[in-house]
Amino acid sequence: PTTRLPSTTRTPSRPPTATAAGNGSGSRALALASVDAANETVLLRNAGQRRVNLDGYAVDFDDGQRYALPPYSLGAGANVTVHTGRGDDTRGDLYAGFLYPVINDGGDTVLVEAPNGRIVAAERVGGN
To answer: Beta-carbon neighbour count of residue 60 at 10 Å?
Structure first.
C-alpha cells in the first residue's frame, strides 16, 4: 500500500511586495491595489486592457483564511472591493463571509493566487 502525506500550504520565504499579474500581452493585469486592515477590505484592480475573469482566483489572508473568488468579470481599468465579512455581492463589492476579522494589522501578508496556484499579487500589512 502507498502512504500519502497531506499536502502543505506554500509559505513565501520572505514577505513579498505588492505585485501585479501579467495578462499574457506584456502589460500588467490583476493588481492588489490596497489592503485596509481597519475596514477589513482588499481592493483588486484590473490594470490591463482586457477583461479578467476572477473565477478560480483566490485571496489568501494568512493563517489558512482563504476566499475563492466567484465567477466575476472585472473590466479593463475597473476595481472590485473584497470585504472579509458578510454581505451581498454587488457589481463593485464581493463578500468573503468570514464571521470575524481576518486581516491582522500587526503583520499579515495578503496574497492573490491564480487558478494554477501561482501568486500573482501580494501585499504585506503591518508588522516588521
So the answer is: 19
Single-letter code of the amino acid located at 78: A
pLDDT range class, residue 64, cuts 50, 70, 90? confident
Each residue of 42-58: pLDDT tens digit? 999 999 999 999 999 99
Residues facing residue 95 across a β-bridge: 83
Q: CA dist 29 to 7, 44, 48, 71, 79, Å?
A: 30, 10, 4, 17, 11
Q: Are 19 and 122 in contact (CB under 8 A)?
A: yes
pTM for the whole structure = 0.77
Domains and CATH numbers, the chain: 20-125 (2.60.40.1260)
Whole-number Å distance between alpha carbons of 16 and 111? 9
Nearest-angstrom CA–CA distance, 33 and 13: 23
